[in-house]
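Board notes (copied after class):
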Amino acid sequence: MTAEKVPFWREPWKLQAPAFEIADGLYYVGNSNVSAHLLRTSEALVLIDTAFAETSYLLTESIRQAGYDPADIDLIIHSHGHIDHCGATRRMQELSGAEIAMGAPDVETVEQGTKYTCAEALYGMDNFEAFSVDRQLRHGDVIDCGDTQIQCHLTPGHTPGVITYTLEVEVDGERMLAGMFGGPGMWTLTDQYREDQGYPENREDFGRSLEYLRGLPVQMWLGAHPGQNDTLGKYERLAGGESPSPFVDADGWLAWVEKMQRDFADLLERSEDQ
């Protein structure tokens, strides 16, 4: 008899990852499956994404390892409204009293906890801890955090409310643009999942978003999932003393976007719904 495979999110302790500083005041506090970043500015402690509710204890411990108290978080911003990126938001908001911000088109689903937020078809999860959003983000919005301005770019496709964030950070005394594409996953565009988890215009939106991303002069590439930009591999290189920082990778950002464009074209070619 073959043992039933246990979903990875039911064994969150296996997802533990180190917390570390990527740039001055910018930290990785996510797990080995889903990214979360912490930003310390002159006026706010900002958390970008919260991952699964099941991994919330890993998140709070990572924030402490970075040298901060999770209760001191002022603002939580999100890449998009899927459970793997905002599943722990209600818990983190209750802990800290933080303001909550998210792309406007994804607000309804997280406030109601719909099937789109749960992504049940992919994860097999049917329970979402819904939360209220204080600020609905739109394309061109700027989140003023004192000495740091976070630029919001609406880049829909994966969900209608995906936000890509860019901000200036300092690395080894040099200012550079860091960026994170909030929704690179193409699974909601596939024939298998699109009807249940997508929306009618998602492929057109995704194609336009990729073209838009090509024009962003990102020098430090951050991943919404650590596997996208080899976050943990770069951490090992950084911890080993590599200089300049392996996270400074302008060519890598553009090459990744171009690869996504090729993969997206392949997806459309294979699709039964032409």
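Comment from the instructor: The mean pLDDT is 95. Residues 250-270 form the longest helix (21 residues).
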